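Crash report, auto-generated. Payload:
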Amino acid sequence: MSTAAAKSPAFDQQGTQSDAQRVDAAMRSFVREFGVTAALHMESCVRCGMCAEACHFHVATGEAKYTPVYKLELFRRAYFREASPFAPLVRLLGLVKPPSIGELQQWQELIYGSCTVCGRCTMICPMGIDIAELVKEARHGMFKAGLIPERLALMDRAAQQWGSTATPGEDLPDILREVSEEHGVEIPCDLDSAEMLVTAAPAELGDHTKALAAAAKVLNRAGIRWTMHQGGFDAANIGFNNGDLELQERLTRSIIDTAIKIGANTVLLPECGHAYGAARWEAAKWYGQALPVRIIHMTEFLDEMLAAGRIKVKPIGQSATFHDPCQIVRRGGLEAAARRVVAALGFELIELKDHGIAGYCCGGGGGVVSNVRATPLRHKVFEIKRAQIDATGAERFVTSCGQCRITLEQGAKQARWTKPVESLLELVADNLAD
Amino acid sequence: MSQARLLGEVLRERGVSRRAFLKYAGYMASLMALPPSAAGAMAEGLAKARRQAVIWLSFQECTGCIESLTRSFSPSLEDLIFDFISLDYQHALQAASGEAAEEARRQSMRENKGKYIVIVDGSVPMGDGGVYSTVAGHTNQAILAETIADAAAVVAVGTCAAFGGLPEADPNPTGAVPISQLVGDKPLINIPGCPPMPQAMAGTLLHILSFGKLPELDHLHRPRAFFGENIHDRCYRRPFYERGLFAKAFDDEGAREGWCLYELGCKGPVTYNACASLKWNGGVSFPIQSGHGCIGCSEPRFWDRGGLYRALPTGTSDVRKVIGIAAVAGVALGAGAAALARRRSAATRDAAAAPPAKTPSPQE
Amino acid sequence: MDLLDFARGPALTFAGAVFVLGTLWRLSGVLLLPRLRDLSPPREGAPAPWRGALGTVLRRMWPRREFLDRTMFSTVNSYVFHIGLAVTVFGLAPHILFIRNFSGLSWPALPSNVVFAVGVITLVSLFAALARRLTHPVLKLLSHTGDYLSWALTTLPVLTGLLATAHLGARYETLLALHILSIAAFLIWFPFGKLMHAFLFVFSRGATGVRFSHRGVKA
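Recovered output after restart:
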């Protein structure tokens, strides 16, 4: 490592708050998280250490600091000082110290650089602690303190301005026209009325436009009355990832409000994991009531269209293995749906050793793939996936999340691994039968 | 009451053969777990002893201790005891009464100054100036102090004298205290039991007589020979304890099978006495053998251990009321804590309403 | 009042009161915190929340197949001492007597020798757990004073119980008093450390069960 790298701190800071203000902001945000579920989980850890055995970062490196519940250490201290049943005594007797600015700064690496919020730790914990969810909650405080990785802060600022990390809304019609022309597929944009509002992931508006075209192809074949709309088009909610609650709310509302405006009954999310988390499970909380629109993920949509016979696919007939995106399967409930689509494609599915709800994370979720500091660690984690994929001996390798694809492709490049990572949606679109 | 003749002479005169005498000495020695050689020494010592002057004071007692002693079973033990010692004062057995009896006591004290043994049964009441037990207008405390002043040793027999016993049990209305609190630095032996075993009383006296000194005592001044082991370790029902076979109620199937009485409150494991090995009434039986758990009568405060039938591994207080109050208090404190946490959370929300430092524009 | 009388009397009463007060304080202090209602529609066919909760409470009794070989020691050793503690506490006649005394409930006891053997196994298992906690990098990092105290106050009753049963080390009444006092210490500490997991596990697992069953995942 160069001396320049050794001198630079292992964390980024945003804003002009003083250290004391940052700590205060973090603590205030932490305190707001402690409802009954978070409190139960904070109280329940028995320090058994099993969560470490589920976490790909710990498994790949053997380093104790990547133990999932350890990532919650400062959050835990805030809880016991501020919201726990014995908090007044804890404060009075000084039994737990409040986090210091130095600790919060060092903590950025654990919260953003070595956690993909994949929730595998949640699955192993004998006390049922949803560690991943708590890490996500802790990010709210880190954001308020201006202590998130700079690349993520950059994306956050872009989305604040543009409503998307990919492009300003006003550029959307042009982009869609280009995609439409390049791939020979019709993509409605900014219609005043439609059944379904379709959204995209940022990569689909940039490098992976083929995915967008594939979605259009399927939608058109199924005869859906759909549109994309510059009022709300980027489903990969960067606010959700970063812990920026205000941005999360804004981005969610832009999609839901647009859907309502155009009279849509359904919002279709792209092949993206965190989009599902933000829209399917958390969107309603901003409205304080059940949403008037249905939120559906691309994988669910393909499953429903195939089951209803509205689209048909030609069987491919090769062996394939499937990477389960964490937010869609483990934390989303679409394990069976994804496999039905794989089966419809005529693949002989050879499962990864760890698949389904217990599958290993690609290593890039939760903003980790965008976090430059985390790159070396991510490549170590990739080895776990690569070994498992190779061990299946499957001919094709498929997944249903764009970020997973990017992460795995980057890992493949670095490791000189030549197996292509394919999208379930694109496979369906490429193999539509009449 | 002459001290001139040796005991050996006296006994020979009475027709107690040397053989019978040796046999008795051997019996007493083995009773006290002394080595075989001690029997001879004991016999020698006894033969050369003079009749020991003994003054027996009785205070807040039930007369059970002297009753027990008179049930001692060895052939001619009674005779031997009353030949070996000169019992100069004892309420139950003396012929005299009133002033004549008191004068006999004082005369013994004068004539045997520094050499007499004082046996005490019953506790001494100290409450309200000691009025709760007096003899001829003199408090027990005063009589005790007067009598032990020139005594060679004090032997407190019975749990009342040794540890306070029944009078001292809650609420102790008379302010009863054990003798040990009133003897200063006089040599003291406690022979507890309610009543004490006759062998314990007799054997201890004979030890003093034979060897001219006190037997080995434990931390409660009890002779180790009789109080060195607990009932549990010598109880014939111990195998049932080990196997977990317990009588659950009196006269139930387990009780009739002779199973362990632990669940019926037996205090054997924490009671030090010789009942299980020497047994009572001529070695016939003891409470456990008769189907009743040991009540721990030779231990201090055995009346206040939560009840004779309260098994050892149970608490002695009625916790239900305390638990009830604790439960209500716990929920109240918890609710208060939750309310406090909600308030702190709400306060941060109000503070957050004021705009925080904005993240700067992309030009940064 | 001697040590045994103190242990059986004021000590147990105080400990019982602190245990009840502290446990209810901690439980109600947590359960009365604000509840966020999940307004998103459940996965089609999702079970009722209570069933989802119960499912997770039961499923977490054993690790998933994928996690088993990496957690074998923790899982097996923990069950050994948990079951050992249960057998010892609820199977030994004097303990059943103790429970019957304040609750009225009782049940047949196991042979005392069997319980003694289980007690020895439990003690060994507890020491194995401590050894692991002191040497494993993850556990060393996570553990704090409270954890070691919880270990000590769980082990002491087992140790003093075995010594008392074997009449080893002191007079029986002293050993019994120490055993009862160690239980009192355990009860007093219980609400304040990780021992509370005995009550919390149902709620903690249950909460995750509710969240995940809502999403159509058998967590």
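Post-recovery validation: Chain A touches chain B through 27 residues (CB under 8 Å).
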